[in-house]
Design goal:
The chain is α/β, with parallel strands linked by helices. It contains three helices and six strands, in the order H-E-E-H-E-E-E-H-E. The C terminus is likely disordered.
Amino acid sequence: MHTNLLLSLLSPLLLLPHLTTAYKGSLTHYTPGLGSCGMPSLPTDNIVALSTGMMQNAANPNANSVCWMHITIGHHGRYFDATVVDTCEGCDYEDLDVSSSLFEKVAPEGDGRVEGVEWWFDAGDGGRPQFGN
């Protein structure tokens, strides 16, 4: 009985394969405002915009299941939490566009674009996924 309950609770997560995948892309920054998830953000918030391919917005992007998910961004052995609030129209699939304050935290040496930043969706278990390379 407990197994059936557990499976019914976890089954929506099984439909999101990106929850167990680690990504590597470019990190850029932008000045946030009203994001595609429907709420305004400040430049001081730890927020992220994902690529259009990752977001896959429907007719009402405010109802996107990726909105408000947390990701972990890793760079040079340091890790940062960010909340998905927006869509990055100019990003490649695995790229991230973050608030300017988060960019300064993650990559203070960056000149506006940093390559090879690792990130993943937080599944709530605190575990760091394995990278292929």
